Amino acid sequence: MAGLPLRMQAAVWVFLTGLSLSAGVMADDALIWRQVDPENLVYMDIGEGTVVMELNPRFAPATVKQFKRLVKDDFYRGLSFYRVIEGFVAQAGNESDLQGSSKQPSLPPEFDQKPGDDWPWASVQTNDLFAPETGFVDGFAAARDTHREWLTHCPGVVAMARGEDPGSGSTDFYIVIGEAPRYLDRNLTIFGRVIDGMDVVQGIHRGRVEDNGIIEDDLARSRIKRMRLAEQLDDNERMDYYMVDTNSPGFEQVLEARRNRTDKWFHHTPPRVLDVCQVPVRVRIEPPPSQVPEQLREQ
Fold it and tell me: What CA–CA distance (Å, rounded) separates 153 from 291?
């Protein structure tokens, strides 16, 4: 295995949040895994490291289509994270959001969607503070009422920035880096999330709160070296990502364990409520079979 990059020499486990499951909650063999569609994977290299994002064409088809085109056109190469607020968001692009205009087409607001008959739903909680019900759709934290469903602003979410006009989003995007700003739900288009490299995102250089996070000194900004779709990567750069199936019985066990905190450690037992943004969805990272030496495939 000496010829393989270090991260390919073993499966790596990461979490979408910093919270781990309580010891003994469930065995790994109770979980079902689904492969993340490589067509929806974006690799973003910045000075601090590599970030991998999963796009969501189910909820934001027009935004994902344009974002993919921009990535293929190398639009984001050399651009920076110009507005970064500690505990809130890290925003990047060509600053069209600040200028109020863009040479790229404006995007329709895709704040919520009417769900299709085949849309999976794993319920988390009813009577959430911000929605009648929260849950997961293919691993994405979501909310819904009787007619519409929408993605929620949990840490790691990727969304399109915009001005006052709901249809003014175009190129600039942000990543939620702090507490979940759920009041933004259904007001901005969420089109993806970070599934690997959130520690890298947290290393992005911050701006000052009193300056609304704007970093005036261009040299002080964290910069995007390149952004590529998985299909643009060489075999030795591409990884296979697997995510816990949030519609599986095993994941329901995870949810129930987090609702019902019975560990002896607790002096006061927490109430049986569960914030959808506080549910870790496990991700497994593996090299594709073609990258594993033949003598190791049989082991």
Answer: 36
